[in-house]
Amino acid sequence: MNIADLFEEGKTIFSFEVFPPKKESGIETVYDTIEKLTDLKPDFISVTYGAGGSGVTNPITKDICSKIKNEYKLETIAHLSCINNTKDEIDKILEELKKEGIDNILALRGDRVEGLEPKKDFTYASDLTKYIMDKGGFHVSGACYPEVHMEAKDAVDDIKNLKKKVDAGADHLISQLFFDNRVFYDFLERARIADINVPIEAGIMPVTSKSQIERMVTMCGASIPASLSRIMQRYESNPEALRDAGIAYAINQIIDLAANGVDGVHIYTMNNPYVARKITEGVESVVKHNR
Ligand code: FAD
Hints:
Elements: E1 13-18, H1 27-39, E2 44-47, H2 58-71, E3 75-81, H3 87-99, E4 104-108, H4 125-135, E5 139-144, H5 155-167, E6 170-177, H6 181-193, E7 200-204, H7 210-220, H8 226-235, H9 239-259, E8 264-268, H10 273-289
Parallel strand pairs: 1-2, 1-8, 2-3, 3-4, 4-5, 5-6, 6-7, 7-8
Helix pairs in contact: 1-2, 4-5, 8-9, 9-10
The protein binds flavin-adenine dinucleotide (FAD).
């Protein structure tokens, strides 16, 4: 089914993201995580491509998506980046996904990997989106950036480029993580003014450790509001307290987003079922109320 159809009823969609293990040996841990996540009945689970942007990992992404779809009977989105792939490689990946019945793809450009010369067949995610749409047989989602993509000239240019991705066929967007909901609401307004009318899910990452958050902020440039900064300073020497305060912060963000009628919330689980469960429990009645 097309993930975009989930939004037609106007309910708040609740989805999770997991990533493949860096080593084949970690696959059982991911399956264990997914089993726990499926209990929480998300609307879909997406699976990233390339652990930490380290290159071509489709066999594992595909296997995990297949398990979610065919064993757990949940909808799934396979992430797919194009910067390090030729058209022939993309064709092969699409064929493999099709064989498993996976028909939703998050089409991405991907990040440059040090020491790896980008391939020349695709420059932007919109090129991959158009390529997949022209081939047919798949529904395409795309990424968006409430705080503007790090390489974009400015916010106006970034939105213009996002519109190209939607015009190429992306009918559902998932946002980069953010910690200040006002940033997301401003972005939504810019997107709607630019005539981007597809469902846009808000990306939420619970802060579970200081080093994790510092890494993510360096990678994606998300700003840290003073209230979250105070939490990090206050509890940095107590990992359990920091984790629980981070979960509470994410729950507050989600409740505010749901109250403001956002299309959906996408939780970056970091493969941590404890955190996903605590958040789901914290927002369960709010999400149900929006259904
Ligand atoms: P694009 O949409 O191509 O945008 C990249 C830059 O180019 C932007 O600055 C944009 O403004 C500009 N641009 C776009 N189109 C044009 C154009 N036509 N002309 C001029 N400029 C243009 N990475 C992974 O490796 N694996 C993953 O699984 C993964 N999952 C992700 C999931 C989400 C929800 C998000 C938000 C990001 C994810 N990423 C993942 C990271 C992503 O690959 C990087 O953020 C990457 O730098 C940009 O990818 P993109 O698809 O948004 O690129």
